[in-house]
Structures are given as C-alpha cells and as structure tokens.
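Hey,
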Amino acid sequence: MAKNSRIEWTDHTFNPWWGCTKVSPGCTHCYAETWANRVGLSVWGHRAERRLLSDQHWREPLRWDREAARNGRRRRVFCASMADVFEYRAELNPLRARLWDLIARTPNLDWLLLTKRPHLVSRMVPWGKEWPRNVWLGTTAENQKWAQKRLPHLIEHPAVIRFVSCEPLLGPIDLEQWLPSIDWVIAGGESGPGARPMNPAWAKSLRDQCVNMGVAFHFKQWGHWSPNVPRGYRPRQTIELTDELGRTIVLAKLPKKRAGRVLDGRTWDEFPRKSA
C-alpha cells in the first residue's frame, strides 16, 4: 500500500493481500514477486500462502476518501500492485467481499482493478450489469496472443472505464477491433533484472492506434532499454533492432530513471475523460 504512489498513472495503491501465481510471459520477471522476496516473504505460486494485511491497512482508503472529499478532487487507487484481485482461490473470497464493501464506502476514490484473469471477473464481482461508478476495470496484454485471450472478456463488463496495460510490452499489438470499447491504454517497457527490450515501433504503433481512435494513451516508461541515451552517458550494453520502416535502431541498457519516458520527443500522460 502506498499513499502518493510512484506509479505514474495512479495516486495511491492498495493491496487486499500479497501474493499471486504466474500465468503468462508478462509475469516472468514479476516486480511484485521480486519485492516480496526481498523482504523475506514467500507468497508466490499455487501452494504458497498469501500475506494478509492489518485492519489499520484496510482503514487507509477511508482516510484517502475523506481527504478527496475535502479537497474536491477524486483520487485513483490502483488495486492491487502486489496481487491479482481475481486470482482463483476460495480462501480469498472473504477478502474480496471486504474489498467490494470498501469500494462502496469510498465514493470519492476511483478504484483501478487491473487483472490478468478477466475471464474470472464475472464469477467474483457482485455487481451484475450495474457496476459502481467508481470502478475501472483493466487487463494486461503483453503481446497479441494475450490481447486476443483477454480483451474479449474485458469488454463484456460495463465498468465506467475499461483500460489495457501493455506493460511489459513484449511484442506488437493491434488493438483496433477493441478500441471502440476501450477508454485508456497504458504502455511501457520492462525493468528489473533480466528486463526484455521493447521495440520502440511497438510503443509507437499503440500510440498511433489510440490517437487515431481518440483513446487516451499513457506511456509509462522505457524500462531498462531505451533509444534515448543521455548526452555524455556511455552505456555498458547495446542491442540493435529494426523500426517500422526497416531501419536499424540501437537500444542502450540504462537505469530506469535515465531511460526515462519520452516517446517521440514528448511525454504521454493522457487519462480517460470519463469520471464517476
């Protein structure tokens, strides 16, 4: 959990529990698993127990909601950065029920539920065809294969905002058939040990698709491989890729902050226009 999160596209993060099971290539270098291991917690995999949080932790969003009401400004809450709300484990059902109640009690917060399991959403949410106006539903699509698997399930649900996180972006993705039903696309490269490079052409293609369809686009980061090398900096490792016109692109391995988040000369910090 974090108030004033460092994640560029949210204000706060909230986790109903810690832990998950890997389901696709985007999970290979999971930052959340790495962080959990770093603090001595073994909470990943089918057999591992999930880490439960205190009542004080669960009260924090109530305080954020009061602050948002006083300030007259809605706040986005990413749920969950260290788990997947829709992981299929029966012992988590009471915590999910507690989360639905918390969402109902915090009308000044927009809850961003991001999952790699959109096919399970209808089994777990209590809302049917009348979703709360403060719930945004998103799914991860790291390449075309997983977009094809997940996007049809995402767009079935009448969330006020439906979004796609293409991070880590591991291949080209054509979202055209789903963009009329999508409000927001987030894209970014992978960071951390073993980070896989993102071809700039993949990010530019997503950006162009969104611009053409009037969908908000947010470019989160290059990750650890970037075409933008700061002046005077000598990277220790480079690779060559090919852009959309067949030209050679050189990517340098950089610290994430040095790699930055500038795409074609600007930052892309767009957010969906709809609100609760």
